[in-house]
Design brief:
The complex is a heterodimer of chains A (157) and B (119). Chain A is an alpha+beta fold. Chain A is 24% helix and 42% strand. In chain A, a hairpin with a 3-residue loop joins strand 1 and strand 2. In chain A, helix 1 packs across helix 2. The longest helix of chain A has 11 residues. Chain B is mainly alpha-helical and 119 residues long. In chain B, strands 1-2 form a two-stranded antiparallel sheet. In chain B, helix 1 packs antiparallel against helix 4 and helix 1 packs across helix 5. Chain B is elongated. Classes of the chains: A alpha+beta (157), B mainly alpha (119).
Chain lengths: 157, 119
Amino acid sequence: MKNNGNLKVEMHGDRAVLMTRVFDAPRQMLWDAFSKPELMKRWFGPRGYTLPVCEIDHRVGGGFRFVIQRPDGEEVGMHGTFQELQAPERSVHVESFDNMPGESTVTAVFTEAKGKTTLTATVEYPSREVRDMVAPMMEPGAAESYDKLAELLAESN
Amino acid sequence: MQTAGPLDATFAALADPTRRAILARLADGEATVLELAQPFSISQPAISKHLKVLERAGLISRGRDAQRRPCRLEPGPLAAANTWLENYRRFWEESFERLDVLLDEMKAQQTKTKKGKRR
């Protein structure tokens, strides 16, 4: 297993995805990294992805807008609104991709212990259709290997 | 038609630990209901119920032999569900690796600033 295997991604009911990840940093830093465009631009997206547009009006009722450029040059826009912000521990926002119907609700909770921060993020999709469409947009044509299947089954048991 | 339907049935079927264990067992080869029931402390009818869910989701198929009706794994839907999770995971995993690097830099910067203030 990779050393970064501490990212857990699991289905939560039939419309939500739950993600858990531990970071070796205080939560105020994570809060900044998730809310300041100049920091966000440096990490959001896998290698080869960029954020040519990253505007964040970080206050309740404020909005954000991203344009994600994939390695193949294709751009995907997304936007959203902040609904709840309790720095540096909890934020709730709604978001949607420009070309997709419905809004997803994202709840992020940052818990700090001994200088490490656990991020627990719940993404609730407006429908199962939208949920199913999201992942293919994130990674065009990723090759699946059969070994991964065994891994998935082993992990979940 | 490729809609949410099949993938959804797959995730629902995978949500149960007993069903995941059954699939893990079937990854080693086909098995009968009796063989599948053995490691679990639940009844055969309960196992049969789980098998029906798995069969409806297309995750397993059952042999024609009326007596044994062996179950075997059907890789298609699992691979689709797995691809979905893998794509999702890879996006965030790689993002968070980049974030780790940034956080290290931020911590180093903070240490430097603190030291600077002390002087």
